[in-house]
Amino acid sequence: MCHLPAPPASRRAPGFTLIELLLVVGLLGVLAAIALPMVQNHRERIRQTHAVQDIVVLQALIRDFRLDNGRYPGTLAEVGNAGRVDPWGHPYVYQELESAPGKGKARKDRKLNPLNSDFDLYSVGKNGVSKTQLTNKDSLDDIVRANDGAYVGLAADYTR
Question: How far is CA 17 from CA 8, 23, 31, 112, 122, in A?
């Protein structure tokens, strides 16, 4: 009886095959594609919250100015906030309404009623564009003050 030598044991170098590496890279890509929009949405909500807080502070400064001077300031510079910008880098918009004739310059809701009777204060939001009526698509991302300060938040949420 003749014995044949056993075939040599296959020796594979330690490591990953190309297919295993491609699967891992593909899986990481899918996870990144899922996580990135969630991170961006979270960052946007943080900016919106920051703008709301800024408007609340500015509103308090404007009201204090009125108590001290008997009138609303003409600009944010009069309350020490000239050039203050929102989290997107756009200046906050302030419009004194008490002495303005008519309702022309006031921000308006979907029924064209003014949002405020004393002053408007808002951020033009992420897109940097705003229209007088909140229901306009350019204004939905604005952070607005409405109901004479009873509401401060996203314009899209106010118009619902």
Answer: 22, 10, 21, 66, 57
